[in-house]
Write a structure and sequence with these properties.
InterPro entries: DUF4245 (IPR025339). Keywords: Membrane, Transmembrane, Transmembrane helix. The protein is built from four helices and nine strands. By secondary structure, the protein is α+β, with helices and mostly antiparallel strands. It has a domain at about 85-225: MucB/RseB, C-terminal domain (Phosphorylase Kinase, domain 1). A seven-stranded antiparallel sheet has the order 2-3-4-8-7-6-5, with helices on both faces. Strands 1-9 form a two-stranded antiparallel ribbon. Strand 7 (about 195-200) and strand 8 (about 205-210) form a beta hairpin.
Length: about 240
């Protein structure tokens, strides 16, 4: 018999059911490792107003850069040869007088060119050396009315083929052109945009070459006149300045 005065806890606490254990090898249950007071990171939603402000700034910057580039390109296109205006005009009369007096051939020089043709360079070689076999050559560079480059080259150098190769950068002529009743051979070097007119005389080769058109080169070629020793040298067509 039980003692009616004794009290047990069997009827005051419910029985606790055992928790099932995880199978072997099963991964641990996920748990939040974020610091207290901070939510785990995830995708953020941006309001339309914020998105517009962000993208509008980038678009404006890109548009400004594009506008600047277009303006720079326009300036380059408008004035691609502005530097030629700064080339000084030279007086080639001294070189021509020396050539007329001492050259072993009768030189040629331009006469009657309009003032829009400007002489910008002149070089004379072969008269000051000790070797009498050195070729005598004269270079006269000019700016044409269309702001292109043209040059008169003349020399008694042999062989003529090698001299022409250096002056025209071409081996073979591409045609002929009649200039003031004389036949000139045409040469053309495409990658250098170089055109040339060539006339071969006894003991002298004349080359008119440059980036100018064949029409402008023909104007220079037609102006060339022989300068014998017993005549005065012509005045340069352009107003001379100091230099050579």
């Amino acid at each position: 018999m039980r003692d009616p005065g004794s009290v047990t806890d069997e009827t005051s606490q419910p029985a606790t059911r055992p928790q099932p254990s995880a199978p072997a090898g099963a991964p641990d249950a996920p748990h939040d490792t974020a610091p207290e007071g901070r939510r785990a990171e995830g995708p953020y939603e941006v309001s339309p107003g914020v998105y517009k402000r962000l993208t509008t700034g980038l678009g404006g910057y890109a548009l400004a850069m594009l506008t600047c580039l277009l303006l720079v390109g326009l300036v380059v296109l408008i004035s691609p040869r502005e530097h030629t205006e700064n080339l000084p005009t030279v007086d080639y009369g001294v070189h021509l007088a020396r050539l007329r007096a001492d050259a072993p051939y009768t030189p040629y020089a331009p006469e009657g060119l309009p003032s829009t043709w400007r002489a910008t360079s002149s070089r004379l070689s072969g008269l000051d050396g000790d070797d009498a076999e050195d070729p005598v050559a004269w270079h006269l560079g000019m700016v044409t009315p269309s702001d292109e480059y043209a040059a008169l080259e003349q020399s008694d150098e042999q062989p003529v083929s090698e001299y022409l190769w250096r002056m025209t950068n071409s081996r073979e002529p591409v045609g002929v052109q009649q200039v003031a009743g004389q036949t000139w051979q045409r040469y053309y070097r495409r990658d250098k945009n170089q055109r040339s007119l060539v006339r071969t005389l006894p003991g002298l080769t004349l080359v008119v070459t440059g980036t100018a058109s064949y029409e402008e080169l023909a104007v220079l070629a037609a102006s060339l006149k022989p300068q014998p020793k017993d005549t005065a040298a012509p005045s340069p067509s352009a107003a001379p300045t100091s230099g050579s």
